[in-house]
Design goal:
Chain lengths: ~210, ~280
């Protein structure tokens, strides 16, 4: 599985399509924290809200990096679709977790308000949850669930855009609400469980579709 | 369906590895004798078995129907375009699941698709090294034997079609048990094509071949001929599709066209009449 993940990660790296979501992430993070972003947890809410669409985009990039024909060769080499789709999901989640860590560390360095260790870890947890949710959404609508990249983009865009107005009715809303009110909530943990379930479900649906 | 009845192997064909092949049509729910019992099949290493395999994409026409195929040694699939060769190879390799039926294949399978993509940014050496690690297999000198002359470190998108095909073949030869090759000679020069024939000797492989490179291998023709029956539309299409031997059913205005395996045409005609259809033509 490690060799398979390394291959898929190397392919994503060579493809360079990951640069677009990465640059959007870095650019918006720079704008968010160019001046005083407020109290520690409150400041995290902006970057957590940003991480959700960026990691969904990144997951689509990872899932569709290989074209359909080369993916067939990989599937045969690896011994089946379940292994390849699991490896792709792990690569997407790993890349998203790197961004989550970066987003948690960024304001600690740039924000004028001091951060306690507790606040940092709450922020890291919240960003991890948002990264999982974004990855899950991206994987759920990518190949092999949707064969066409056009449908994938439309579906992911629609789900991401619809998530925000639904507010606290969604797991993302639970996280953003907790951060926005500067408090720690158990609902963040449940949102994390939901994120893991979403990623797992995306793999399962993909395997079923093949 | 696209198979001929039992015993359809080309007369006089000699298998390079001396292994066996059998292809047969079977009645629904009836196991082929060699497919019964455990997965130890025929006593051959690297055998692939397709047992009463059928395939359709979505709700489209059947591409394969009730195909039973047991292969070891070097076997060539032939047949006209659209007879299901690539679909059969994908099922044998494990890329596609059959709609019905079961497949037994060895652990280490190498696969070359009909068209290797031309826009790969990874270099040939990286690609082969990564897939070697995925397979936990040592690389072999297939590239050298096929006469690869491009850069191993340049992106594969910069390789010629023939050299990219050699890379595709090299990754497949990392597999130890079974090779599934879809038109593997595409883009190869005559010397490389001859070398590929030599590389395949003694291997267990299922190969589609329009050009007759493997004259001495066992051949399976997926065309097998067919009979087209035009019926007036009295019963639902599902009832006709369910009949043994029916390859495809399509509706055309008030009539229905049924394509049937030659050996089942009498049975399908009789069943269609029993179901209340009237026959417009048989050809």
């Amino acid at each position: 599985m490690i060799a398979l993940m390394r291959y898929l990660a190397a392919d994503v790296f060579r493809g360079q399509r990951f640069l677009a979501p990465l640059l959007v992430f870095l650019g918006v993070m720079g704008m968010l924290f160019s001046s005083d972003a407020g109290q520690p947890l409150e400041a995290y809410s902006g970057s957590a809200a940003l991480l959700y669409p960026v990691t969904a985009w990144l997951a689509v990039v990872v899932a569709t990096s290989e074209d359909a024909v080369r993916r067939e060769i990989t599937v045969v080499s690896a011994g089946g679709w379940p292994r390849v789709l699991t490896a792709a999901a792990l690569v997407a989640v790993s890349a998203s977790l790197v961004l989550a860590l970066l987003a948690a560390v960024w304001p600690v360095v740039t924000n004028p308000h001091p951060y306690t260790a507790g606040e940092f870890f709450v922020g890291l947890g919240a960003h991890t949850v948002c990264a999982l949710l974004g990855s899950g959404v991206g994987l759920m609508f990518s190949r092999p669930v949707f064969d066409s990249i056009g449908r994938t983009v439309l579906a992911v865009f629609a789900v991401v855009v619809l998530t925000y107005p639904l507010g606290r009715a969604t797991p993302l809303g639970w996280v953003l609400d907790a951060l926005g009110h500067n408090r720690i909530s158990l609902s963040v943990l449940w949102a994390g469980v939901f994120g893991v379930a979403l990623v797992s479900a995306a793999v399962a649906v993909g395997v079923r579709r093949t | 369906m696209h198979t001929r009845p039992s015993g359809s192997v080309t007369p006089g064909a000699r298998n390079l590895s001396g292994a066996s092949i059998e292809i047969a049509r079977t009645m629904p729910n009836q196991m082929h004798p060699k497919a019964s019992g455990s997965c130890v099949i025929g006593g051959y290493l690297g055998v692939v078995l397709l047992d009463q395999v059928s395939k359709r994409y979505g709700r489209g026409p059947w591409v394969l129907r009730d195909l039973t195929l047991e292969v070891s040694g070097l076997t060539v699939l032939t047949g006209a375009n659209g007879t299901g060769k690539s679909t059969l190879l994908k099922i044998a390799a494990g890329v596609l699941k059959p709609t019905t039926g079961r497949v037994v294949r060895p652990a280490s399978v190498g696969y070359v698709p009909e068209r290797f993509p031309s826009d790969v940014r990874m270099s040939a050496s990286s690609y082969l090294a990564h897939l070697g690690r995925v397979r936990r297999a040592e690389g072999v000198d297939v590239l050298e034997r096929l006469g690869f002359v491009g850069s191993l470190t340049a992106p594969m998108s910069e390789l010629s079609k023939g050299n990219a095909q050699k890379v595709a073949l090299a990754q497949a030869f990392l597999a130890s048990d079974l090779l599934v090759l879809d038109e593997p000679w595409t883009g190869l020069d005559p010397a490389a094509a001859a070398e590929l024939v030599s590389l395949l000797e003694g291997r267990t492989a299922l190969v589609s071949d329009h050009e007759g490179h493997l004259d001495s291998a066992t051949r399976v023709d997926l065309s097998g001929g067919h009979v087209t029956i035009e019926l007036s539309r009295v019963v639902g299409l599902d009832a006709l599709e369910a009949l043994e031997g029916v390859r495809s059913v399509s509706s055309r205005g008030s009539s229905v066209r049924v394509v049937v395996a030659p050996d089942r045409s009498d049975y399908v005609l009789a069943e269609a009449l029993r179901l209340g259809c009237s026959v417009r033509s048989v050809r």
